[in-house]
Design brief:
The complex is a heterodimer of chains A (169) and B (551). Chain A has 169 residues and is α+β, with helices and mostly antiparallel strands. Chain A has 7 helices and 4 strands. In chain A, 43% of the residues lie in helices and 11% in strands. Chain A is elongated and about 55 Å long. In chain B, α2 packs across α3 and α9 crosses α11. Chain B has 551 residues and is α/β, with parallel strands linked by helices. Chain B has 23 helices and 14 strands. The chains are: A alpha+beta (169), B alpha/beta (551). At the A-B interface, α2, α4 and α5 of A face α1, β10, β14 and α17 of B.
Chain lengths: 169, 551
C-alpha cells in the first residue's frame, strides 16, 4: 500500500468521525483513491472503523459499484435498462463485444477495455446510451450501421491493439 | 405591457440535455449576447432544470415577459429543441427582433405534449435555477416551511396532508397522511425522516429530474415532513448512478444551511433539522424500505421482515418516516393551495397528479405530469405521439410497460385504462414509480419477460431462497422460450414457479419479480405457445426448427 494512500484513507475516516455507519461513504472515497478496493485498503478500513473485516468485505462485495479487482485502463458501460433494451441496447452490447474482442461483464476485458452492463442510468429519453470512461454518450444510431460505426470509432471503441487514449473525444 | 418586453432564455441543464451538449450551447448563447451588445444585453440567460421533452435536447425556452415580477406564463414563451452552439447567435438575434428564429428547431407549446401537462410536483422544474437558492426563494420556495413553522401545529400539517389524499409515489401507494400519523404518534423519543431517492426501476427518471431541477422544493417538503412528525435528523438516500443529482442536492443543502433554513432554530422557530445525503452503491433492492435503512446504516442492503414497519422501528430502531422524492416534493404545493385543492385533482381513489417518465418506442420521450385518471392512451398516443413512423388505431403501440421489474405489460387494446393505483393493479401491472416504456410491434414479449427476470436475478440480494434461486430458474425457463426450445410442460412449470416465488419471497423485489412474466403470459400467451417445441401443439414450431437446421 503506498503510504500516501494509506494516509489519505486515515484522514477521510477521521473526517467521518470514525462512525461505522459511514462505511459505504468511506468505501466510495477509498475506491476513488485506488480505482478499486484492494485487500489491504479493506483491512485498513476495518481496523480504523473498528469493524470486523468480514463486515467490511461483506458490504464491499454486496454493492455492484464497488470493485474488488483493479480496473482496466478504459471502461465502457452499456445501459440495458428497459428503454435502452427496446431501442437495441442488447445489439449495441454485442457489437461492442465484437469490436473489442471481449465479453460483457468480464472485469478483465481485453486488457485495455472492459465492458459492463448497467441497469438504468435514468437517461431513457436518450436511449440507447453508453458511458465511455465516465462520459455519457446519448442516442447511438442503431438504425444506421455506418453512422453507428463512426460514433464507436470516434469513441475509441475499436479493435486496435493499442487504442490511442487521446483519440477518444 | 411595457414598451420593451423582458427577455429570458432558460437553458435546460439537466443531465439529459447536458449529454446532448447543453453546456456548450449555453456558453455559446452567453458569448453571442456579449457580441451582439446593445439590445441583447437585456436578455437574461439562466440554466434551469428539465424542460420535459428530453428526447430532443438540448432545449431552450425563450420568455417574453410583459412587466416586472410576472410569471413567465404571463407573457409568451417559445421553445426550441436540438439547438447547436452555431445557432446561438441566430436565436439571440431572433429574440431581440433582429433576425429570423431557427424555425426548424421551434416547438409548438400548444402541442399536447406540453398543453396537457399539469405541473404540480414539476412546478419549478425548468423554471428555477437549480443551483441558486436566491432564485428558488424568489419563486416562493421555503415560503410554506416558514409559514408552517410560524402558524401551524404539526397536527394541522398532517391534517392537510390527510385531506389531500396524497398516496406514496414510490409505487405502493400507501396513504401518506396515515404514515405520517403513525410516525408522529409513536412514544416520545428521536425520530428520523428519510427520502427514498434510490430510483432504480429501469425506465424511470422522474426523481432524477426533480433532484436535478428543483432540489430546494424537495428539501422544503422534507423539512415540513420532519416538523410534522417531530424528526430532527433526516437522510436523502440517492443512487450513485445520479452524479449530477447528488452534486446539486449537496449544493442545495449547503445553501439552505447558509440561509438558516436547515440547522438549529430554523427561520426563527424552535425547530431544528439536520439533513444529510447518503449515496448508494448500486443495489436495486435498496429501494425497498428496510433494505434502504440497512444501507443508510452502512450495512449490506438486505431487507428484513415487516412488521415492525419502519414507521415504528426504523433507523437505529427509532420511528422513521420514509417517503419517495415525488411524494415529498408535492408537500409544499399541498400546503400552499390546501389539501382540498389537491384532492380535487385526479380520481376518487388516486388524488393529485403523477409524473411519468415516457420512453421507449415513442415519438416524444421525456417527463410528463398529468392528473391521475388520465388514460394511458392520452399519455402514450396524444402526449407521446405513438411509435415513430407507425400508424393504426393504437399508433403502432404493442404494449406499455409500467412499474419496471415489479410491474407488467399492458396491451394496446387496454390503452383506455385510466392511470390510477387500482386500475393498473387490476390489469396485473402497477403504478410503480412512474416509468412508462412504450413497446412497438417488433418487441417480443418473452424477451421482455426474460430481460426483467435477468434484472431480478442480478439484483436479488440473496437473503431468501425463493427469490435467490427462483429467479434464476425462471430466467432459465424463459431462455427456453426465447430460444424457441420450450415445451408445454415448461409453460406449466413457468406459471407454477411464478406463483411460488411471488407468494413466498421476503420482500417486494421477490414478490413482484414474476409480474412481468405473469402479465405477458396473460396478454401475449400466444407468443409463449408459439415458442413451444411440441409439434402437435403449434405449427410455427416446425418452421423454426427448419430454420435452425438450414442455418
Amino acid at each position: 500500500m503506498p503510504p500516501q494512500a494509506v494516509e489519505r484513507t486515515t484522514r477521510l475516516i477521521r473526517q467521518q468521525r470514525g462512525r461505522s455507519d459511514a462505511l459505504i461513504e468511506v468505501l466510495h472515497q477509498v475506491q476513488e483513491i485506488y480505482g478499486y478496493l484492494p485487500p489491504g485498503a479493506l483491512a485498513q478500513v476495518a481496523r480504523e472503523l473498528k469493524l470486523p473485516l468480514s463486515r467490511v468485505h461483506g458490504v464491499a462485495s454486496f454493492y455492484h459499484l464497488f470493485r474488488l479487482e483493479a480496473p482496466t485502463a478504459h471502461r465502457c458501460a452499456v445501459c440495458l435498462g428497459t428503454a435502452c433494451f427496446v431501442k437495441g441496447g442488447g445489439d449495441l452490447a454485442e457489437r461492442i463485444e465484437g469490436r473489442l474482442g471481449l465479453r460483457l461483464d468480464d472485469p478483465a476485458g481485453n486488457g485495455t477495455w472492459a465492458l459492463e452492463h448497467v441497469s438504468c442510468l435514468g437517461a431513457c429519453g436518450q436511449a440507447p446510451v453508453l458511458v465511455v470512461d465516465g462520459q455519457l454518450e446519448p442516442r447511438l444510431p442503431m438504425d444506421d450501421p455506418a453512422a453507428l460505426d463512426a460514433r464507436l470509432d470516434a469513441l475509441g471503441l475499436t479493435a486496435a491493439a493499442d487504442p490511442d487514449p487521446n483519440g477518444a473525444s | 405591457m411595457a414598451a420593451t418586453p423582458q427577455l429570458q432564455l432558460r437553458c435546460c441543464a439537466a443531465s439529459g440535455c447536458r449529454s446532448a451538449g447543453s453546456a456548450a450551447l449555453q456558453a455559446a448563447l452567453l458569448a453571442a449576447r456579449d457580441q451582439l451588445g446593445g439590445a441583447a444585453e437585456a436578455v437574461t440567460i439562466k440554466p434551469v432544470g428539465c424542460l420535459r421533452l428530453c428526447g430532443r435536447g438540448p432545449l431552450v425556452a425563450l420568455d417574453r415577459r410583459g412587466g416586472d415580477g410576472q410569471e413567465p406564463s404571463a407573457g409568451s414563451t417559445e421553445l426550441y429543441a436540438e439547438l447547436t452552439p452555431e445557432q446561438a447567435p441566430a436565436l439571440l438575434a431572433a429574440a431581440t427582433g433582429l433576425g429570423e428564429a431557427p424555425t426548424a428547431q421551434r416547438l409548438d407549446p400548444a402541442h399536447p405534449f406540453f398543453a396537457l401537462q399539469k405541473p404540480v410536483v414539476l412546478e419549478g422544474c425548468g423554471v428555477v435555477n437549480p443551483e441558486s437558492i436566491d432564485d428558488a426563494l424568489a419563486h416562493g420556495t421555503y415560503a410554506q416551511l416558514r409559514r408552517v413553522l410560524l402558524e401551524c401545529t404539526p397536527e394541522q400539517v398532517r391534517d392537510q396532508v390527510k385531506r389531500s389524499g396524497l398516496r406514496g409515489r414510490g409505487g405502493a401507494g400507501y396513504p401518506s397522511g396515515l404514515k405520517w400519523d403513525t410516525v408522529a404518534l409513536q412514544p416520545p423519543g428521536p425520530r428520523y425522516v428519510v427520502c427514498n431517492a434510490d430510483e432504480g426501476d429501469p425506465g424511470a427518471f422522474m426523481d432524477r429530474s426533480v433532484l436535478e431541477s428543483d432540489p430546494h422544493r424537495l428539501i422544503e417538503g422534507m423539512a415540513i415532513a420532519a416538523y410534522a412528525v417531530g424528526a430532527e435528523q433526516g437522510y436523502v438516500y440517492v443512487r450513485a448512478e445520479y452524479p449530477l443529482a447528488i452534486e446539486r442536492l449537496r449544493l442545495a443543502l449547503r445553501q439552505a444551511r447558509g440561509k438558516g433554513l436547515l440547522g438549529s432554530g430554523i427561520a426563527g422557530s424552535s425547530f431544528n433539522l439536520r439533513l444529510e445525503v447518503r449515496v448508494g452503491a448500486g443495489a436495486y433492492v435498496c429501494g425497498e424500505e428496510t433494505a434502504l435503512l440497512a444501507s443508510i446504516q452502512g450495512q449490506r442492503g438486505t431487507p428484513r421482515p415487516r412488521p415492525p414497519y419502519p414507521a415504528q422501528k426504523g433507523l437505529w430502531d427509532a420511528p422513521t418516516l420514509i417517503n419517495n422524492v415525488e411524494t415529498l416534493t408535492s408537500i409544499p404545493v399541498i400546503l400552499r393551495e390546501g389539501g382540498d385543492w389537491y384532492a380535487s385533482i385526479g380520481t376518487e381513489g388516486s388524488k393529485g397528479t403523477k409524473v411519468f417518465a415516457l420512453s421507449g418506442a415513442v415519438a416524444n420521450t421525456g417527463l410528463v405530469e398529468v392528473p391521475m385518471g388520465t388514460t394511458l392512451r392520452t399519455v402514450v398516443q396524444t402526449i407521446g405521439g405513438g411509435v415513430p413512423g407507425a400508424d393504426g388505431p393504437d399508433g403502432g403501440v404493442k404494449a406499455v410497460q409500467t412499474g419496471g421489474p415489479s410491474g407488467g405489460c399492458i396491451p394496446a387494446h387496454l390503452l383506455d385504462t385510466p392511470v390510477d393505483y387500482e386500475s393498473l393493479k387490476a390489469l396485473g401491472s402497477m403504478m410503480g414509480s412512474g416509468g412508462l416504456v412504450v413497446m412497438g410491434e417488433t418487441t417480443s414479449m418473452p424477451e421482455v419477460a426474460r430481460h426483467f427476470m435477468r434484472f431480478s436475478v442480478n439484483e436479488s440480494c440473496g437473503k431468501c431462497v425463493p427469490c435467490r434461486a427462483g429467479t434464476v430458474q425462471l430466467a432459465h425457463l424463459l431462455d427456453r422460450f426465447v430460444e424457441r426450445r420450450a415445451t408445454l410442460a415448461d409453460l406449466e412449470r413457468l406459471e407454477e414457479l411464478c406463483t411460488m416465488v411471488g407468494a413466498t419471497s421476503l420482500c417486494g423485489l421477490g414478490q413482484a419479480a414474476p409480474n412481468p412474466v405473469l402479465s405477458t403470459l396473460r396478454y401475449f400467451r400466444q407468443e409463449y405457445q408459439a415458442a413451444c417445441r411440441d409439434p402437435d401443439q403449434c405449427e410455427p414450431l416446425d418452421a423454426c426448427v427448419l430454420q435452425e437446421v438450414t442455418r
